[in-house]
Amino acid sequence: MEIKYIFHGEIACSVIHIESKKEKNIGKFIFGLVVVTLCISLLAGCTQQSEGEKPNLIQTGSSTVLPLAVAWAEQFDQANIAVSGGGSSHGLNALLLGEADLGDASRLMKGSDYEKVGGNADDVYANGTAKAPANGIFPVKWVVAYDVLAVVVHNSNTWATQLNYSQLSKIFTDDSPATYWDEVPGLTGAPHEAIEIYAPDEASGTYDYFFESIITDWGKDTQQIATRLELGDGVYHPSADDNVILNAIKDNEYAIGYFGFAYVMENPGQVKVVKIAKTTTYVEASLDNVANYPMARPLHIYTNGIPDTTTDKGNAINEYLQYIMSDEGQEIVSVVGYVKLDLVDPTIIPDQLAKL
Fold it and tell me: Residue 337's pLDDT band (boundaries 50, 70, 90)?
């Protein structure tokens, strides 16, 4: 899938080209090449033009969830859904401020998300759920897919084709960071060339998840080291757009970065994927290795409470979540390049459907 954003004045339109490799398996979802156009009004807070009497829903947040959200929204017939990205922090903030109906997040909600809207950080549990509302909103978490996070380098890179967490820390954190590739311990044949990092910004759930993996006690008072971005030495170039990151690494022989594996699948051969190990067992990033790969994570949609089916909007949100967890909705997950829920844990879907 390729997503292109075209701006016309105050309207941002995303044109999505989806070419299916599983046409026989997904019924009406894709017949050959489907071209979808979703127009988002930035001035009106990402609202979408009404179609008949269908409810209008706003879904925003994680850039990792974005390709899935776009595909689901296009196929869902019971509502007009305006979809946009902006990062997990943006999605959760928009939900908690009542500006969105669905907040996409590639990380768990944190106490700091509550604090941003005047809530109590202690009301958020470690599992990303809440015990009390903030700003009149009671966020409920729904797991909708799994993602494999990929560390990538330039195609000509022959010295960093596999990295462990200790080496990643040397590259990506402020703990005596390596300036040049040959300063990273254990890399055979690494050149004396400056490392350049192109990766997600602090608003991204991908940023949080990556550093939670390699920094002990990430986000806690006991955290000892910080990120290379926080160091501010100019090596870490942040972006909210995964396509910007991919293109920068593709064009820079000595670059490294990370993003969701779906973007690798959408751009085959553009960058080289690095094998990752927590210690010594290196695992290739792939959809088949999700159970053993050290950087695999759930993707979420947050809603304001369990959808109230007595209202048109609540009923539409309820049906949308059911669609996402249906066979058709989950087949879209695999087509776009993520991992279906039942491949990770077959109890997730029935447990969540029982709440709707």
Answer: confident
